[in-house]
Design brief:
globular; four-stranded mixed sheet; 12% strand; single chain
């Protein structure tokens, strides 16, 4: 069979997208319930919340949400998970959903078996207890109990759904290294600022100094990016004080962080 000219590829892709079934809209009741449970969603302005709803709709259309064990998730739970995972995509867009197809949700923290062969050829094996995990091209995994704990204390610097979704963004350029796909000039600025801030932060942790943000950020550049992103959404003032250069880049990448939850939003939904 003769090879198609390169110009046919966009045409075929557009045709496939046109043939793809349209996502089922999120019902107002489920969306309002999800927003009512998450200060980060309530804190978005109307335009950004509407954009997030479109992204969450696409998420639910493309991803399979699989609860593990006895965990049962209601429709609004799935909407909530989709919205939390899509928070980092508000400016980046739905291209951030590419490359994987499943969200696995455990009732609580889960254990994974690890192994590593060191330079001397000795095999080391151990178990880790995790609240979330993100594989390069595999599923995204979350602990439902920890998602709930983050919602209960929304301004403490933690959001495991954002953390693991940021790893997905980080991996889109083929390397999980703390730098997502960016225009070249911005990528150079980002890499320089993050490396300098990361090195200084690691020096603080190594010296036993108390840090304003979670010291887990010193584990690796990709964890530094993911932890800083959690603070962008849940404790932006702390991030700006601790890592001002990083905070500035994340504001440019994610947009302004959500404002404090608004009683006016709750009143408006009650009147509908």
């Amino acid at each position: 069979m003769a090879q198609l000219p390169a110009g046919y590829v966009p045409l075929i892709k557009s045709l496939l997208q046109w043939l793809r079934p349209a996502p089922r809209p999120i019902e107002d009741a489920a969306w309002n319930e999800a927003c009512g449970r998450a200060a980060w969603l309530r804190g978005l302005d109307d335009a950004r919340r509407a954009r997030l709803r479109v992204l969450a709709t696409r998420f639910l259309h493309e991803k399979t949400i699989t609860p593990i064990g006895d965990l049962q998730l209601q429709v609004a739970d799935g909407v909530l998970l989709a919205a939390l995972c899509c928070l980092p995509l508000l400016e980046f867009g739905e291209v951030g959903l590419e490359g994987w197809s499943q969200l696995i949700v455990y009732p609580d923290a889960f254990r994974v078996h690890r192994s590593h062969m060191d330079a001397a050829g000795v095999l080391h094996e151990w178990d880790d207890e995790l609240i979330g995990e993100s594989w390069d091209s595999g599923p995204l995994i979350l602990s439902w109990a920890d998602v709930q704990a983050d919602l209960a204390e929304p301004h403490e610097g933690y959001c495991v759904a954002v953390h693991e979704m940021v790893h997905k963004l980080d991996a889109l350029d083929g390397a999980m290294d703390g730098t997502p796909p960016l225009p070249r000039a911005w990528q150079r600025e980002w890499a320089a600022a993050f490396q300098q801030s990361y090195d200084a932060f690691c020096a603080q942790v190594d010296a036993g100094e108390e840090t304003l943000i979670d010291p887990y950020a010193a584990e690796a550049p990709e964890e530094f990016f993911a932890v800083a992103s959690e603070y962008h959404f849940s404790a932006p003032d702390v991030l700006a004080q601790a890592l001002p250069d990083v905070a500035a880049h994340l504001r440019r990448f994610y947009g302004e962080p959500p404002a404090e939850s608004s009683r006016a939003w709750l009143d408006s939904t009650e009147q509908r």
